[in-house]
Design a protein that fits this description.
Layout lengths: L6 H23 L5 H28 L9 H31 L6 H28 L6 H26 L10 H32 L3
Helix pairs in contact: 1-2, 1-6, 2-3, 3-4, 4-5, 5-6
């Protein structure tokens, strides 16, 4: 039942389901070969590990706890996320931005710009989500920090939904995806969008509980 008391549990379930979807994508990627596919595999594995470390920390905060600055999990997340996001940015530059600029694929310029923008902004939003969350979790009473995290969760959900649409309706001129690839990536994007919305709801529910009207 969707109530404020169940918000933390549902948000955590969404985050763990998202981690499972990333692991499934990583497993699927191993069935292919080539440098252009192994690099995304490294990204998927790193992203899965990072999310698996981050989720318990957010769970602690959503249930009213506080994460110490010396917490080993928080330290690991703080050290890992800049490298993971930087790697994602590098892949975006090599396999999305540069091919679009060079006109490698005969794609409509407007559609190509949408693809480049959605994926690029998505990486930036992921960086902000980790940046603000590792700060917020040591001081959950910080209303400004909570508001920033709520905003970024909302934006991340919208971008994930947009990416799902782009996967279902691929750009003309791009290499065709298999049905399995479309289903897996679209499913992962939908799960990501839902997990961000559930996290946003949990953060807002916690704020209302702490400061009832």
């Amino acid at each position: 039942m969707l109530t404020p008391s169940t918000a933390p549990t549902l948000a955590l379930a969404g985050l763990w389901l998202r981690a499972a979807s990333l692991a499934a994508l990583a497993a699927y990627t191993t069935t292919n070969s080539g440098l252009g596919l192994w690099l995304p595999l490294v990204d998927l594995v790193a992203s899965t590990v990072l999310l698996a470390l981050w989720t318990p920390l957010m769970g602690r905060v959503l249930r009213g706890g506080v994460v110490l600055t010396t917490d080993p999990l928080r330290t690991a997340v703080s050290m890992l996320y800049p490298w993971v996001i930087a790697f994602e940015g590098t892949l975006w530059l090599l396999f999305t931005f540069l091919p679009a600029v060079a006109g490698v694929y005969p794609v409509n310029p407007v559609a190509s710009t949408v693809q480049v923008t959605v994926s690029g902004v998505g990486i930036l939003v992921s960086f902000l989500a980790y940046l603000w969350s590792v700060r917020f979790m040591v001081n959950p009473a910080d209303t400004a920090g909570r508001s920033s995290l709520v905003d970024v969760a909302n934006l991340a959900a919208a971008l994930a939904a947009a990416q799902a649409v782009l996967t279902v309706v691929p750009l003309g001129g791009m290499p065709a995806q298999t049905l399995a690839s479309q289903v897996l990536y679209t499913g992962a994007n939908v799960i990501e969008a839902a997990s961000w919305l559930l996290l946003r709801w949990a953060l807002l529910s916690a704020a209302r509980t702490e400061r009832p009207d």
